[in-house]
Amino acid sequence: MAADNDPIIKVRGLKNAFGEQVVHDNLDLDVRRGEILGVVGGSGTGKSVLLRSIIGLQPPVAGEVEVFGEPTLDREETETVDIRKRWGVLFQGGALFSTLTVSENVQVPLREFYKDLDPVLMAEIAAYKVVMTGLPAEAGPKYPAELSGGMKKRAGLARALALDPELLFLDEPTAGLDPIGAAAFDELTRSLQRTMGLTVFLITHDLDTLYAICDRVAVLADKRVIAVGTIPELLALDHPWIQEYFNGPRGRAATASIERQERSSAEMVR
Ligand SMILES: Nc1ncnc2c1ncn2[C@@H]1O[C@H](COP(=O)(O)OP(=O)(O)OP(=O)(O)O)[C@@H](O)[C@H]1O
C-alpha cells in the first residue's frame, strides 16, 4: 500500500534505446503527489519517450517504473487495468480520432474500461467533460476537423479527464496555440489540478507555462534527468543548458512578464 508522501511516479535506472541510439541512460525521476511537474529538455532529449515508458507504451531496455506504488513494466495488460484507469493522457497534437465526434472521442476511455455502462450515461459524462474543459456544449457532436487548434486541445483534455483521473499526462499542450489561448489553457490546467486534486506530468517548451503553473521542473539532458526543482532552484545551478534556457532572452522575457502580472494583480488588490 502506497503512503501519501510516496512519489506518485517513481522511475529508476531507466534506459531507452532505438538500435544504436541511446535516448535515456540510468534516468531517475520522482513525481510528487499533487504537484504540476514541468518536463523540459532540448528537442529529441526523449521527453515523449519518457512519458510513453511511464504509461507502458514504450518498453525500456532496462529500469523500473512504479505508478501509484505499483510496477508498470513487464506486466500483462490485464494486470495494469486498475492503474491505467487512474490516469489520463493528452498526447501531442491531441490525437483525436478523426472519424469520431468530440463526444464519441471522450467516450473512448469509458467504453474501454466500463463496457457495460449505459450509453445514455456515457453521453452525459462526455457532455459534462466537454463543458468542464471550457468548450461550448455544441462542440460535442462536432468532428475534430471542424474545431480550431485550441478547441482540439480542449477536446483531447476532456477525453483525458473522462475517467476522473488522479494523474494527468500532458505532452506539449500549448504548442501551436497563440499566447492568449496558451495562457487560457494553462489557467484551465491549474484550476482543474486544484479542483480535482490532480498530479500533472507536463511536457512543455513553453517558458510561460513553466513560470505560470509548474510547482517544479525536471530537466532532461545528457540522457537523464539532470535536475529537478523550482525555477529559482534550477537557476542557481551552473549547467550550461539550464542557464541558456532560463536565462536566455526568452527566459528573461518570461520572468519579466510574470513579474509584471504579479505587480498588476498586487495593484488590483490594493
Ligand atoms: N518509435 C521510435 N523509433 C525510433 N526512434 C524513436 C522512436 N520514438 C522516438 N525516437 C527517437 O528518440 C528520440 C527522442 O524522441 P522524443 O520524441 O521523446 O523527443 P522529445 O524530447 O519529446 O522531442 P521534442 O521536444 O522535439 O518533441 C528522438 O531522437 C527520436 O527520433
UniProtKB/TrEMBL annotation:
Residues 9-247 form the ABC transporter domain. It comes from Sphingomonas guangdongensis. It holds the Pfam family ABC_tran. Transmembrane segments: none annotated. InterPro entries: AAA+_ATPase, ABC_transporter-like_ATP-bd, ABC_transporter-like_CS, P-loop_NTPase. Gene3D superfamilies: P-loop containing nucleotide triphosphate hydrolases (3.40.50.300). Keywords: ATP-binding, Nucleotide-binding, Transport. GO terms for molecular function: ATP binding; ATP hydrolysis activity. PANTHER family: PROTEIN TRIGALACTOSYLDIACYLGLYCEROL 3, CHLOROPLASTIC. This is Phospholipid/cholesterol/gamma-HCH transport system ATP-binding protein.
